[in-house]
């Protein structure tokens, strides 16, 4: 499993999102290679199809399926909690679901 943690340094929520990712990996007992990538230019945002900070990709897929409809840009990102409230952080439940789905794909015949 390859995880890319993409962030824009100007966004204050990425350290807490990094910790949520670490907590979810620990809770699920998943060991994975994690690459931290700072997105600092509009060109890098376009290249990575970066919809904002923080963004977590697992095996190249955003943990939030709604991200495919978002433009690439240098900005802080908005997520939605399970109850529909907005948050600058990805909910831990979203991270766990994406990790579990990726783990299940790895174990397919």
Question: If you had to describe this structure to a student in words, what would you say it looks like?
Answer:
The protein is an alpha+beta fold and 109 residues long. It has one domain. 33% of the residues lie in helices and 20% in strands. The protein contains three helices and six strands, in the order βαβαββββα. The chain has a four-stranded mixed β-sheet, covered by helices on one side. The longest helix is centred in the C-terminal third of the chain and has 15 residues.
Which keywords apply here?
109 residues; alpha+beta; 4-stranded mixed beta sheet; two-stranded antiparallel sheet; globular
Oligomer type: single chain
Number of domains: 1
Strand order of the largest sheet: 2-1-3-4
What would the principal axes of the Cα set say about the shape?
globular
Beta-strand proportion: 15-25%
Query: In DSSP terms, counting alpha (H) and pi (I) runs of 4 or more, how many helices?
Result: 3
Q: Poorly predicted ranges (pLDDT <50, ≥5 residues)?
A: none
Helix content range: 25-40%
- What is the CA-atom radius of gyration, in angstroms? 13 Å
Mean pLDDT, all residues: 94
Written as H for each helix and E for each strand, in order along the chain, the element string is: EHEHEEEEH
Class based on secondary structure composition and strand pairing:
alpha+beta
């Amino acid at each position: 499993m390859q995880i890319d943690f993409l962030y824009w340094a100007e966004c204050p929520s990425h350290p807490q999102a990094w910790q949520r990712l670490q907590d979810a990996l620990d809770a699920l007992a998943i060991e994975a290679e994690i690459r931290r990538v700072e997105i600092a230019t509009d060109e890098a945002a376009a290249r990575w199809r970066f919809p904002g900070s923080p963004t977590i990709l697992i095996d190249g897929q955003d943990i939030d399926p709604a991200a495919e409809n978002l433009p690439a840009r240098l900005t802080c990102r908005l997520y939605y909690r399970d109850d529909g409230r907005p948050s600058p952080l990805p909910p831990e439940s979203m991270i766990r679901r994406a990790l579990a789905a990726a783990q299940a794909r790895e174990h397919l015949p």
